[in-house]
Design goal:
This protein is of the alpha+beta class and 312 residues long. It folds into 2 domains: 144 residues; 123 residues, Jelly Rolls. Helices cover 49% and strands 20% of the residues. It is rod-shaped and about 90 Å long.
């Protein structure tokens, strides 16, 4: 029969045993779901990367289809649009492929390491890998979102007072009169669309003649420093470099403004200029397409180094 002292020791140790059992027992079941979700995040990142890769491939296929159309590369603005879509598709496909491969690798590596007892350092390393993947996912999704956003543009309005007479340009031999607008600033890669309205007024009565857009006319865009030497058609004008530009309007209704039905009339030119920059988001997409895969590679490399250290 145990002694009273043994009994007292046994009873005294009982609360401690219960306390130890509670400490080393299974964790709270309510925490199992968040832990499982965190373990599945690299797998979700891989699926997101696969989706982004598919979007990039579709963009490349659309460019390839457009290139099969005859005359597509004839217009400078079409060439700029296709080159921009080509760059966007290539960046999205590359970033998505790296994210898909890296996310799948990290997911499998975490599955292997989860079978061994985890220390506080291991938990910190795992959080570090997931944070890198989370930032990479955000950067990769940003690349895709920027490719579908509308192209930013700005409008410039011109009144008749904004145009003045211009001597005939050196590279245009058509008869008629020319008007040049005030200067406007344009960024490299901008694409122009000009909507011009011309009103011919009778000098004696002031009445408007010929309607809103009478006769033959053409709209050019030229450098503000040399409007007579460098006019190009506005409907296909892509800005080669940053600088100031002007609109040049050719009025070809009459051989001169003082002959034929143009005698005793005065032309008034109004215009709405729309300038869009298709390449606005391309630098940000390129940065995200490089930074996102770089973070994935860092995460996978650290995970690989960690798995090698844990090998027996």
């Amino acid at each position: 029969m145990p002694s009273r002292r043994d009994s007292e020791n046994g009873y005294a140790a009982l609360p401690y045993a219960i306390h130890v059992t509670q400490e080393i027992g299974p964790s709270d079941p309510s925490q199992a779901s968040p832990n499982r979700e965190r373990r599945q995040f690299p797998r979700a990142a891989a699926w997101i990367g696969l989706l982004v890769f598919a979007v990039g491939v579709v963009q490349l296929l659309l460019v390839a289809i457009d290139l099969q159309t005859p005359g597509t590369l004839g217009e400078p603005r079409d060439s700029l649009r296709l080159s921009t879509q080509l760059n966007q598709g290539a960046i999205a496909a590359f970033a998505g492929a790296v994210l898909a491969a890296g996310g799948l690798y990290v997911h499998r590596a975490e599955q292997r390491t989860s079978k061994t007892p985890a220390s506080s350092r291991d938990a910190s390393e795992t959080r570090w890998h997931r944070n890198l993947l989370a930032v990479s996912v955000l950067l990769t999704l940003t690349v895709v979102v920027l490719s579908v956003l509308p192209t930013p543009s700005r409008n410039v309005a011109y009144n008749p007072g904004d145009f003045r007479p211009l001597a005939q340009p050196t590279n245009v031999t058509s008869y008629g009169a020319y008007r040049v607008s005030r200067n406007f600033w344009a960024d490299r890669g901008s694409v122009f669309d000009a909507n011009v309205q011309i009103t011919w007024n009778d000098n004696r009565t002031g009445a408007a003649l010929f309607g809103g857009q009478p006769g033959t006319f053409e709209v050019y865009t030229a450098s503000a420093s040399s409007p007579r030497e460098s006019p190009k058609l506005a409907r296909s004008f892509v800005v080669p470099s940053d600088g100031f530009y002007v609109l040049v309007v050719w009025l070809g209704r009459c051989e001169t403004l003082t002959t034929g039905e143009c005698a005793n009339t005065t032309p008034y030119v109004q215009a709405q200029l729309r300038a869009a920059i298709p390449t606005t988001y391309l630098p940000a997409q390129l940065g995200g397409g490089i930074a996102g895969p770089a973070l994935v590679v860092m995460s996978a490399a650290r995970m690989r180094a960690k798995s090698r250290l844990n090998l027996p």
